From TrEMBL:
Domain Alcohol dehydrogenase iron-type/glycerol dehydrogenase GldA, chain residue ranges per copy: 26-204
UniProt record similarity statement: Belongs to the iron-containing alcohol dehydrogenase family. Hydroxyacid-oxoacid transhydrogenase subfamily.
InterPro entries cross-referenced by the UniProt entry: ADH_Fe/GldA (IPR001670), ADH_Fe_C (IPR056798), ADH_Fe_CS (IPR018211), Alcohol_dehydrogenase_Fe (IPR039697), HOT (IPR042157)
Species of the source: Natronorubrum aibiense
Record keyword Transit peptide present: yes
One of the Pfam families matching this protein, by short name: ADH_Fe_C
UniProt key word Transit peptide: yes
GO molecular function: alcohol dehydrogenase (NAD+) activity; hydroxyacid-oxoacid transhydrogenase activity; metal ion binding
EC number: 1.1.99.24
Keywords: Oxidoreductase, Transit peptide
Record-given protein name: hydroxyacid-oxoacid transhydrogenase
Catalytic activity: 4-hydroxybutanoate + 2-oxoglutarate = (R)-2-hydroxyglutarate + succinate semialdehyde; (S)-3-hydroxybutanoate + 2-oxoglutarate = (R)-2-hydroxyglutarate + acetoacetate
Domain Fe-containing alcohol dehydrogenase-like C-terminal: 254-432
Length: 437
């Protein structure tokens, strides 16, 4: 059980938290924001003759997006090297290759600036590369024990700018990088304010090429951040940090995160159908990118919870995409098991998702959130109908998934508004096998 930071934990010494804090990169958003990259770098103190590394993947080079970014940087007088080896759901080895490349090219000092361009994978490789070049050693030094050495990052390093090309992960503003550990079927996160970018530049013109399936799946991740952030513990029901520096990065919901959640749920749920069915609709794409950003500001500050906790063991074992795993698990977790934590709050979620709740009792209205969400997924027509459809998962796999969730995901379960035992987790996985026929 991971409720060590809860005021109701049996052995706490501190009172409830009274202070909240928001830390964000600079954020630049809008159509053709890429044209302001040079200005952004200069504003971060990078001189005109500086040499930077652009971390991305081959697909984004092939479709010409990387060339467009590079042209803007070169026009502003910057010299740029492209490393396009980022892999989907990147492993520690994948980041090691990038770090090796930097040290071969530029020595231990590395580049003058870093730019991560792409989906969450490219962004996490860029974040981790800058951190390890600046702090020295290798990736494993900064991964939690027992997988790694558990050392803390102490320096941020030269400016890092992140440009997402999907509307989903929120990695461009988050203080976390997620890496998979080959051969172990686990993922590990490096979580530190030193890994956070200095600036996020969000330009929706780069998102129109994302295929319908990936558009839908990344949107479900974004919607998950928004709803999980809206329904996690309030910050002042958690234990006060012993000093300001030790406040956890997922620190509970506040009036500010709730505002962002509300707007994100509205933007994402009312634009995702258009973005999936007509990818060239720049207005819908822009609303999705903004919704994903707002969802991340909310959820990745307040804290993602049970759904994300259960998604990692599934993704690790079956190599499913993060977004589709979140999509499949949300009905049974956030909008199922968690409803009992605060039904009134879920009535609000149901209404934000567009459900009609007039004349219904509180509990019935709260359950409409799940129905409305499932209907949205069915409309998108590219989301698996449950864990079974996602990866052939059956009753036999549930015990392993439940025990992995409870054993390895306390960082996220701590944020869940209802306690979760291993038996509970098994029941919830069972519930998620089939979301619809
Ligand atoms: Fe996520």
């Amino acid at each position: 059980m991971g409720y060590d930071r809860s005021v109701s934990a049996p052995e706490h010494e501190l009172g409830p938290e009274t202070v909240w804090h928001l830390q964000m990169p600079q954020i630049r958003f809008g159509r053709d924001a890429v044209e302001e990259l040079g200005y952004q770098l200069a504003d971060l103190g990078v001189g005109g003759d500086a040499h930077g590394l652009l971390v991305t993947d081959e697909t984004l080079v092939d479709i010409g997006h990387v060339g467009r970014v590079r042209d803007h940087l070169e026009d502003a007088g910057y010299d740029v090297t492209v490393w396009d080896g980022a892999e989907r759901e990147p492993s520690i080895e994948n980041v090691d290759h990038c770090i090796e490349f930097v040290r071969e090219q530029e020595g231990d000092a590395g580049y003058d600036f870093y730019l991560g361009f792409g989906g969450g994978s490219c962004i996490d490789v860029a974040k981790t590369t800058r951190a390890v070049i600046e702090n020295g050693g290798q990736v494993l030094d900064y991964i939690a024990e027992p997988t790694g050495e558990g050392e803390a990052l102490t320096e941020s390093g030269p400016p890092l700018i992140l440009m997402p090309t999907t509307a989903g992960t929120g990695a461009e503003i988050s203080p976390v990088a997620i890496l998979s550990v080959e051969d172990q079927e686990i993922k590990e996160g490096i979580s530190s304010n030193h890994i956070r970018a200095d600036a996020a530049v969000l330009d929706p013109t780069f998102t129109t090429t994302l295929p319908p399936e990936m558009t839908a799946k990344t949107a479900m991740d974004a919607l998950g951040h928004a709803i999980e952030g809206y329904t996690t513990h309030p910050f002042d029901s958690l234990l006060r940090a012993s000093d300001p520096g030790s406040r956890p990065v997922y620190a509970g919901r506040t009036g500010l995160t709730e505002m962002f959640s509300e707007k994100a749920i509205d933007l994402l749920s009312s634009n995702v159908r258009t973005a999936v069915h007509n990818g060239d609709d720049l207005e819908a794409r822009s609303a999705m990118l903004k919704g994903a950003l707002f969802g991340a500001i909310a959820g990745l500050t307040a804290g993602a919870s049970l759904c994300h906790a259960m998604a990692y063991p599934v993704g690790n074992r079956y190599h499913t995409y993060h977004g589709e795993t979140i999509a499949v698990l949300t009905p049974a977790t956030t909008l199922g098991y968690n409803v009992a934590s605060d039904p009134e709050r879920f009535v609000a979620v149901a209404e934000m998702l567009g459900a009609e709740t007039d004349g219904l009792g509180t509990r019935e209205a709260a359950d409409r959130a799940r129905q409305e969400y499932v209907r949205l997924q069915q409309d998108l027509n590219v989301i698996p109908s449950g864990l079974n459809d996602l990866a052939g998962i059956t009753e036999e796999d549930i015990d392993w998934l439940a025990s992995q969730t409870v054993e390895t995901q306390q960082r996220l379960l701590r944020c869940n508004p209802r306690p979760v035992t291993e038996d509970d987790a098994a029941d919830i996985f069972r519930d998620a096998l089939y979301n619809w026929e």
